[in-house]
Design brief:
By secondary structure, this protein is mainly α. It has 6 helices and no strands.
């Protein structure tokens, strides 16, 4: 049961992080329209690389995903720390990144324990 919950939480938070960063770049920020595609490529592109393996819950892809979300957690923390009227955007980004980090870590660990015990 806990493996399923961790799997669903990790998948949901990773997809939500990708969608959140995309929404941030497209709708919630005041970026110049000329640079939106560049920002999407730089911020959303890396999240799409391991997405297929994460959706299939392959261990290597999940581990790479945890390493990949670390800069997003830092970016969200810095944006939240900087304050301003859009600090909540950074809080949500950091929360989603850390949610994936912990849930994927627990999922990988618990699934490995279940495989070794059976």
């Amino acid at each position: 049961m806990k493996i399923t919950v961790a799997r669903v939480a990790s998948l949901a938070s990773y997809v939500a992080l990708a969608l959140w960063v995309m929404a941030w770049m497209l709708v919630l920020s005041d970026l110049d329209a000329r640079y939106v595609s560049l920002y999407l490529l730089l911020f959303v592109g890396p999240l799409l690389i391991p997405l297929r393996g994460i959706l299939a819950t392959r261990d290597k892809a999940m581990v790479w995903g945890t390493l990949l979300v670390l800069p997003y957690a830092v970016h969200g923390g810095v944006m939240a720390w900087a304050g301003g009227d859009k600090a909540w955007l950074g809080i949500v980004e950091a929360g989603l990144a850390l949610s994936y980090l912990f849930s994927a870590s627990f999922f990988i660990r618990w699934r490995a324990q279940a495989r070794s015990s059976s």
